[in-house]
Structure formats: C-alpha cells, structure tokens
Amino acid sequence: MVETISVTEEFPIFIPDLSFVVPVYNVQHYIQECMDSLMGIEGINFEVVIVNDGSTDRSIDNIRELLSLPNVRLINQENRGLSAARNVGILNARGNYIAFVDSDDKIVPETLCKLYKAGVERHNAPDIIVGDYNYWIGDKLVRGCHPSCDCMVVSGQDLLRRFYPKITSVVWRNIYRRNFLLNNELFFAEGIYFEDIEWMPRTFYCAKRVFYRNIAFYDYRCRLGSIMLSDFSKKKFEDCFNIAFMQLSFLQKRTDMSVALKTVFLRNILYCLYKGISSYPYAGKESDNENLKRLLPLARQNGNRKIRLLLLLFRHNPYVISGFLRTVRKLHQK
Q1: Which residues contact 233 (CB under 8 A, 6 or more apart)?
Q2: Fewer CB atoms inside 10 Å of the end CB: C or N, the chain?
Q3: How many CB atoms lie within 10 A of CB 113?
Q4: Are 82 and 53 in contact (CB under 8 A)?
Q5: Residue from 123, 99, 121, 125 nearest 112 by CA
Q6: What is the pLDDT of residue 169?
Q7: How many angstroms separate the Cα of 23 from the Cα of each of 10, 32, 170?
C-alpha cells in the first residue's frame, strides 16, 4: 500500500524543475543531515519527494517540521525495498529532472546547482547529466572515481563503451530527465539487491544525449549496516544470477547491438556472476540452484565463452570454483 501524505494543501501546486527522490528506511541518525543539505540549495526550483519505505525508527519524526514546506512531500508505503521506493518516486515526481539521493548521504548545494545549470541551460536538456562524487573514509572525504576529461556531451552508448564502469555504475551520481525515464519504461527491478548494476547499463543504452562535467556534487557515506556492507546472504547470491539473467534477456532482444557495446553488457554479467560466487560462503552447495538452471540455456545462446565456461564449471565443480574465486577475491582485496 502506498499512501501520499498531503501536508501542504494550503499551498498552490508546486511545479519544480528538479525532483529529489529520497527513499527512507531506518536512517534516523542521518536523515536530518541529508535533508539539511537539500534545503541549502538555492537558484533552482526543486522539490523533495520522500518515500518512507516502512521505517520503524524515528526517521520521519526527525524531519517532521520540514513536511510543512511547499516543496517537500512524504509518501508512506509498506516496506518493499529500495527499488520499489525509487519507482514510486519516479511516478510521483513533478520535476523535469529527477535526482536520486540515498537518505544517509548528502548533496553539495553549490556544485549541484552548477552542474544542473550547465547541463540544462548550456547543453540543450540532455537525457542524463553526469557529475562526480566524494566518499567518506572514516573522517576523511575523498574524491571518487572520474574520467580524465573535464566535460563532454556524448550518447549514452558511447559513454558505456568508453567509460564502463568508471562513471556508469551508480544511480546517485546522475540527474535524469523524467520523461526520458518514463518514455523508455526505465524502472528499477524490484525485490533484488544490487539493482544499480542491472539498471545503469540499460538506462545509458537508451540515452541519446548525456552531458558529463567533472563537478563533485554528491557525498557518499559507506556505513556499517548498509546493504553494501552487510553479510553476503543467499538472497544476494541468487540476485547476482537474477541480474545476469535479466541482462542476457535484454541482449537477446537487441540483435542489432554493436559488438563493442555487447561486450560491455557481457563484462557486467561476468562481474555479477563473479561477485555472487566469490562472495557467498556457501556457494559450493548451490549447484542445483534454480536460478542457475534457468540461466544456463540463456547463457549458451547469448553469453560469451567466459560466461559459459564459468557457469559450466560452477555447475559441475561448485566447491572447487567457489573456493578458487573466493581466494582470488581475497588476494584482490589485500
């Protein structure tokens, strides 16, 4: 059930240029800082669409006073996960553009405005505006991964070919034209972990014009207890196979895709499989996994030699392959 809480009926309907979609789930210690960063934005007509994904802590209570603002809306729903919350945000946003903000992260107001205006006003409203980010290591803020060029306007497919996965891997470093998302039915796959890995290549593939400028506008917080740092469960293992299946299905429907671009998708698929097998401690017990069984025929038709070989070896020697890949992963992490 999705419930929109209207606390601003005394104000006229607000039509923004930019909508920030903020999924919220049990982030009571971080949500105020996130919202304060958004409220510091000046020079852009914006709204904040907060999607409360069934929080059980004081997350919403901590920002209750902000809900009376005309450009802040709250949508309550039962806990359905990050993908579902983002999809609800897409459908309820009113802005010409959408930015996704994780509720434990922050925006840098000045650089966000600079990036947005550069893309929209100077480069003819591209489908995607791409910027850079910072991330926290303890108390130190470090610049994230970015290409060597300062600025470029290219197609999404060209960006995938040239810079995968350097600047095409995370949802929150980009600003998206809302009609571009809706017209291409670019919604997140619900009920899975690692939804960015599935969504990002598909989204850039559809983009006609992408503007990039090396402006860091987003501060990312990697915290204990987050999805990325929590234990690698069987569900995460299975979702790696689910994403591989979805991406191979995507390739199967696009027979005109260039070899270079198909290679990008196949690398992404191989990464998902490696991540799943090498990270899950009990992967060796999963040779009869149903997701693996349904993936094998599709991999024979649309996968490359590396994908087919990995799946076949894992199918017949799961303990050997999973142990080997876990060792390789540990060596890379040293």
Answers
A1: 280
A2: C
A3: 19
A4: yes
A5: 99
A6: 85
A7: 25, 13, 15
Tokens of 197: 């890995």
Cα atoms in the Cβ-side hemisphere of radius 13 Å centred on 155 = 7
If you count DSSP H runs as helices and E runs as strands, how many of each does the chain have, helices first? 11, 11
pTM: 0.91
Cβ–Cβ < 8 Å for 107, 41: yes
Coil, helix or strand at residue 85:
helix
What are φ and ψ of residue 243, in 5° steps? -65, -40
Distance CA(88)–CA(35), nearest Å, equals 19
d(CA 186, CA 50): 20
Strands 97-100 and 18-24: parallel
Phi, psi for residue 189 in degrees, rounded to 5: -65, 125
Q: How far is CA 303 from the centre of its chain?
A: 24
pLDDT average, residue stretch 44-52: 97
Side chain identity at residue 132, one-letter code: D
The band of 112, judged by pLDDT with boundaries at 50, 70 and 90, is very high
- Chain-centroid distance of CA 49 in Å reads 17
Beta strands in 6-110 (DSSP E): 18-24, 46-53, 72-77, 97-100, 106-107
